[in-house]
Amino acid sequence: xxxxxxxxxxxxxxxxxxxxxxxxxxxxxxxxxxxxxxxxxxxxxxxxxxxxxxxxxxxxxxxx
Length: 64
What we know:
Layout: H1 9-15, E1 19-22, H2 34-39, E2 43-46, H3 55-63
Parallel strand pairs: 1-2
């Protein structure tokens, strides 16, 4: 795990990125840290869900 916490919420709240991008299996209001990013003028983008595809699987494959 790359974070010492269960979610990157504290990191998002500290860095306040311009955009958080998540997959289509999320709703904007479910994205941790999204409310703080939006309140700071940023946005939460939800991409279309593609069955059988995940960033975790892509990262795992790239590491092999």
